[in-house]
Amino acid sequence: MSGKIREEALDWWKESLHNLRQAKRNLEIEEYSVAAFLSHQAAEKAMKAPYIVTKARLPPRGHDLIKLGRALEARRSWTS
């Protein structure tokens, strides 16, 4: 099972990089709404990959980056 989980994490990571490349291309042609959507998708998938690795289970369904970040226990001081 652990090999499958890691394979899924790698798939999420590769997809995030693909979405980021697509977002950059759309930004270049001034397709801003598409670029924003794809950027969000890239961020979401990039967060789901380490979730799978650290939690050893599939990430929660949904598109809420704040919720996903909290699930990853991502903490950062924005004031320092």
Which labels suit this protein?
single chain; 80 residues; mainly alpha; Four Helix Bundle (Hemerythrin (Met), subunit A); 72% helix; elongated
The helix/strand order is: HHH
CATH topology: Four Helix Bundle (Hemerythrin (Met), subunit A)
What separation lies between the terminal Cα atoms?
A: 41 Å
Mean pLDDT: 87
**Distinct helical segment count:** 3
CATH architecture: Up-down Bundle
CATH superfamily: Nucleotidyltransferases  domain 2
Integer-rounded radius of gyration? 14 Å
Give the uncertain stretches in residue-range form: none
Report the helical percentage: over 70%
Number of structural units classed as domains: 1
Overall shape: elongated
Structural class: mainly alpha
| Content of β-strand | under 5%
Main sheet record: none
* Beta strand count: 0
CATH class: Mainly Alpha
